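Throughout our pipeline, every protein is held as a single compact record rather than as scattered files. This encoding replaces a full spatial description with a residue-level series of whole-number codes. The remainder of this section carries one protein's record, kept here as part of the documentation.
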Amino acid sequence: MNQNAEYSAVNDAVRGQFFRRVWHMTTPYWRSEEKGKAWTLLIAVIALSLFSVAISVWINSWYKDFYNALQEKNSAAFWQLILYFCGIAAVAILGAVYRLYLTQMLTIRWRAWLTEQHFARWLDNKNYYQLEQGGYTDNPDQRISEDLNSFTSNTLGLGLGLLRNVVSLVSFSVILWGVSGSIEVFGYTIPGYMFWCALVYAAVGSWLTHLIGRRLIGLNNNQQRFEADLRFSMVRVRENAESIALYNGEPNENRRLSGRFGLVWHNFWDIMRVSKRLTFFTSGYGQIAIIFPFMVAAPRYFAGKIQLGELMQINSAFGNVQESFSWFISAYTDLAAWRATCDRLLSFRQAMSDNEARVPAIDVQSQGNQLEVHHLGLDLNDGRHLLDDADMTVGAGERVMLSGRSGSGKSTLFRAMGHLWPTGHGRIVLPAARYLFLPQKPYLPIGSLREVLSYPQPGDVYPNERYAQVLETCRLPHLIARLDESNHWQRMLSPGEQQRLAFARALLYAPLWLYMDEATSAMDEEDEATLYQALIDQLPGLSIVSVGHRSSLKRFHPRHVRIENGHLVEHALTA
């Protein structure tokens, strides 16, 4: 994996670009086609958040009257205030429930929009392929599914929390300033001294919290990556279960999985150690905050300047002011996780942007009615040359067999025709007519067999009779009754059956040009001959470019082109 790409977002923060890039990732939704519903929900959630602050101010005023009633032993006022509190509590519960409900509604709508946008971008410009081949970023599936979920929920949660705390800070600062009075220190009178005590207490606590917990940002980033790598390794075992079992590769896989989990283990222990130190401090900070306002306000209470009700009101107001000032402390762990999530999403988006901005080294165009290769050069990432100034023309209706020694560049040429090879030079002109690529290992999506056969088209595009015909032609009659069965067909079918299914797909799709890369390598020669003949008979005028080794393929291709010493060389075919 490219570590520089992974941590580019972290470096951006140093250059002052982190928040700008997060802003560009956040704002498009609020200007999208969903902006009406989005802003309506956001305004409602903000209103309910501010309402919760009003409830807290309401309760703070209630504290004063309630504790004064207790001090005065006023039974009538006591029970009246209890009923009054029940009314406040009912309103507070209703507001809290709908604040949570509407916040969750906004979160899932935002996540759905972002997910669709990232799906489209990841699948566009072959990003999903190039990022995987180049190792530019790890686990894009996790970044789209989990990181976008965390980003939307944490961004809303932290943003609304910050807003609520700012409003609460202003509201309770006014109350605290008014009820705390002044104090004289070294001959100087300090008005609203409880407010300044809360400010100093929170400022010192925030600074120490960041000092103790700042390593959590990088550790959370690593933890998400290591967990995703472990899941991916286990998926690889599932996907290749048969091969591993035949190789008796269980001990090797055990070592690999244990190694992956070892990274999870050691990084988690680092998180535990930092979290332990941070929790020691934040818990102590929170416990001291309970008695600190009493300690500071006690002299005025014992001097008879304030009553018990005022003391409790001061304590409540101080607690709210101190809590608002200390928002950074209480939210630090969430902020660290949010920062790690943003780093991963930003590096993923940057990798896609880099791929999209990359000018293709090989000019591949679709036009005309014949395949043309002009001065084509194909290079490997290590700088080795596979092809050098190769030229070839294939006319409509021709069938050409492309062969050569293993590693000579046959499949690489196949990928270049499919816009998949990034390094080289030259020009490829593909016919603009309907075409289809058949790779050596066909892709069979999880779903009904009907959907597998019609891929990439919808499953209902052909009548049942046509599906049955092509399965019969491709020697798969036992699958006709299973057309509507949903399954993991790539696991269910043998490699030979999968390749025959790909030929059935070609017969359904009826392309004018068919490009095949070792598409019959898992079949016997009898099946191979049957399927090639079916293509020729049922799709008259079909142009075929086949990559293959077998001599048995020669009779289906009037032309034979070999890759020799980096050049495309025409060979005469013998019967």
Notes: The two ends are 50 Å apart (CA to CA).
